[in-house]
Amino acid sequence: MAQDQMQNNKKTEIQTIIAGHFSKNRGKIIRRSGNISISYNRVSSKDQMENGNSLSWQNEQMDLFALKNNYQITAQYGGTFESAKTDERKEFQRMLAEIKKDPSIANVLVYSYDRFSRSGANGIFLLENLRKLGVRIIAITQEVDSFTPTGMFQENLYMLISKLDNDMRKDKSMAGTKSILKKGYWPYGTPFGYDNLNKFATADKHEYVINSHGLVLRQAFKWKAEGKYSNQEILDKLRAKGLKFSLRNLCRIFSNVFYCGYVKSSLLPGELIKGKHPALIDEDLFIKANNITQQNPRSGVPKIYRTDALPLKVFVKDEISLSPFTGYHNKSKNLYYYKARDKGVRINVSATYLNNKFAGT
Question: What angle do CA 60, 62, 63 make, to 5 degrees?
């Protein structure tokens, strides 16, 4: 008897442990209840966001739905356009943080599922995050039950349909952009040095004129073509004339075919189309300026003609290529270095080290 009782006690203890590990609520979504809600909206374009009409319309319809169905909207989130992916993520995370903090929030109201997200699998992932918190997503124009298998299937299907619609729109838009480019029109932002007198029209109606900055930029191309100045020295000259941009941007300008009257885009790889806009410089000057860059890829590094820190310049050569050494000053480290002059010879050595080696110290 005593042994049976002991066995039963152990069995009961094991059952208690199992019950603790496998509680009926463990891993189960606890659906929140109540009428406390928040709303989430978004639009398709920046223009719609700035105009505000679409967002206002969504908010008005959600307010009417909430009033009619006894939902209490305590906060609004979203207010972004679908191209602003970073802003959209921030808004969703902000909304998610509030839902986690406030267990009374039971519902998220959206105008339609495509106003919630048009990113397909990512939209489904966002919906799943809300479901795990026990929150119901209510699309006021496509109402389904988020917590039934059929409802979840419908929601996921709406997300995938929205993604398909979005991809088809992008495909049509891309085809239109390609057509515009092939005709020589520039459908993107106005390049530096130009003004667009008709910037709110379609690309085929744009009217580009060269502004005062463009006239200074023309001189920069001439300096580059002469081969007397490094990119940094040209940049300093431009800054002295009031033009302020980075060295990287200057290099991009020098290689931009828009300035010699052409248009080029990654949408049309390998194609160069004569543009409808006025050229800042002619083709010959553009080619000459870029040939200088190809001959000397380190042309952005200011040349040092004479300095006691680099006594071995020209005198020392690479033993394989016989390329003479030149030198430069690294301002951030305040150190001098030798490097091989010829393109493709990867030699870069501390001036102090090489000078000491030469001197035998």
Answer: 65
Stated pTM of the model: 0.48
Determine contact, residues 136/31, Cβ cutoff 8 Å: yes
Name the class of domain 36-167.
Answer: alpha beta
Write out pLDDT tens, residues 92-120. Answer: 888 888 989 999 999 999 888 776 765 55
The CATH label, of 3.90.1750.20, 3.30.1330.60, 3.30.70.20, 3.40.50.10300, for the domain at 208-295 is 3.90.1750.20
Strands (E), the chain: 36-43, 72-81, 107-110, 136-139, 194-196, 208-210, 262-263, 273-274, 325-330, 335-340, 348-350
Residue in 225, 222, 215 with CA at minimum distance from that of residue 280: 215
DSSP code string of 14-30: HHHHHHHHT-TTTT---
Q: Hey, what amino acid is at 46? A: K
pLDDT in tens, 82-99: 444 444 567 788 888 898
Please give the backbone phi and psi of residue 271, each rounded to the nearest 5 degrees, phi first: -100, 140
Query: What pLDDT score was predicted for residue 83?
Result: 46
Q: 């010829």: which residue's tokens? A: 342
Q: Which two tokens stand for residue 138?
A: 């209510």
- Tell me, what's the pLDDT at 300? 46
Percent of the chain at pLDDT > 70 equals: 74
Neighbours of 8 (CB within 10 A): 10
Mean of pLDDT values over 293-313? 59
44-63 pLDDT, tens digit each: 544 444 444 477 888 899 89
Could you tell me where in the chain the CATH 3.90.1750.20 domains are found? Answer: 208-295
Residues of the chain with CATH 3.40.50.1390: 36-167
